[in-house]
Amino acid sequence: MSTIFSQIVEGEIPARIVYEDETTVAFLDANPLAPGHTLVIPRDEYERLNDVPDDVAAALYDTVHRLVPAVEESVDADATTVAFNNGKAAGQEVPHVHCHIVPRFEGDGGGPIHAIAGDRPDLGDDELDDIAADIESRS
Ligand code: 5GP
C-alpha cells in the first residue's frame, strides 16, 4: 500500500503542487494550519527521517530552504515554523517523511515549538553529560 503522499507524487490524487524536482515535491497541506501551509516530501517513500539516505536528506533540505522564503513572501508571513513530526509518538500520521512549513503571523495565537512538550524532565548535570556523550558517540 502506497501512502497518500506517494499517490500525490504519482498524480493519482490531486494536490496543489508548488515545487518539484527529481527527488522532492512540495504541495499545500489539505488542512492548513495557516494560509500557505506547505509540505515538502521526498518522492520516494521513507517513513521517518531516520530512514532517509544522505543524498535524499540533502535534497530535502535544499527544497525546504528554497520554499521557506517563497512561502513567507507569498502569504506575507512574519515568520514560519518548520518542523517534522518524526514518528507516531511525535504525532506523525502519514508514514511518508514530510516537512511542515507553517507560516506564522504576529499575534496569530500559536505557540513556539516548545509548546509540543508534555511533562518536562528535571535533569541534573550528570544526566545531561551522559546524554550528550551518548548522542555524540552515535553521531
Ligand atoms: P503529520 O501529522 O503526519 O505530520 O501531517 C500530515 C499532514 O498531511 C496533515 O497536516 C494533513 O492535513 C496533511 N494531509 C493529509 N492527507 C492529505 C492529502 O490527501 N493531501 C494533502 N495535500 N495533505 C494531506
Automatic annotation (TrEMBL):
Top-level taxon in the UniProt lineage: Archaea
InterPro entries per record: Histidine_triad_HIT, HIT-like, HIT-like_sf
GO terms (BP aspect): nucleotide metabolic process
SUPFAM superfamilies hit by this protein: HIT-like (SSF54197)
Active site, renumbered: 98 (tele-amp-histidine intermediate)
Residues forming coiled coils: none
Name of the protein in question: Histidine triad (HIT) protein
